[in-house]
Design goal:
The protein is α+β, with helices and mostly antiparallel strands. 33% of the residues lie in helices and 10% in strands. It has five helices and two strands. It has a two-stranded antiparallel ribbon with strand order 1-2. α3 packs antiparallel against α5. The radius of gyration is 20 Å and the shape is globular. It starts with 5 loop residues before the first helix and ends with a helix. The model has no long low-confidence stretch (mean pLDDT 86).
């Protein structure tokens, strides 16, 4: 059931999607070759090599599959340290009553993977709600509700203050 939810599907496993396709040289001729850039969001603990092996298996022997460089470090889920998670839970309950705090993989871009590789754990706490159908995410009209922006701002402000004191 969760796999059918657009917002949660990609937080459960490695996902790959073709983001750039190129083929042909003229509008009236069959292409002699084609290329596709496949963007993968690799689940923490899984590797580029393992994902590449699976893509090669799926593509078959006549298709060449390579990984673009540079290859990033493997993501490692951080420990759920109560000193970090505690303030998140407390303030989430204050700002978003009745909404549970659930640890999950972020599918957004972050530099956290590079901090992890030098031993610094990274936690995300966005506090911003999006539309259930994810309308506007990476679309031509990327947007969120104004109330979500302000609610998220207030939550994050209080969270930074809690960590700073």
């Amino acid at each position: 059931i969760v796999s059918q939810d657009k917002a949660l599907h990609s937080t459960l496993r490695t996902t790959c999607v073709a983001t750039l396709l190129q083929a042909g040289h003229a509008e009236n001729a069959l292409p002699q070759r084609a290329t596709a850039n496949i963007n993968c969001r690799i689940f923490p603990g899984e590797t580029v090599e393992g994902t590449l092996t699976k893509l090669k298996e799926l593509a078959g022997p006549k298709i060449t599959v390579t990984a673009n460089q540079p290859v990033r470090p493997t993501a490692i889920p951080p420990k759920l340290d109560p000193k970090i998670i505690g303030p998140m839970k407390t303030l989430a309950a204050k700002h978003f009553p009745g909404v549970p705090l659930v640890p999950m993989m972020s599918t957004g871009a972050t530099d956290g993977i590079f901090f992890q590789s030098i031993g610094i754990p990274v936690y995300g706490a966005p506090g911003i709600f999006i539309e259930k159908d994810m309308s506007g995410i990476h679309g031509l009209n990327e947007r969120i509700r104004v109330t979500s922006l302000y609610d998220g701002r207030d939550y994050l402000y209080d969270l930074v203050r809690a960590y700073a004191y």
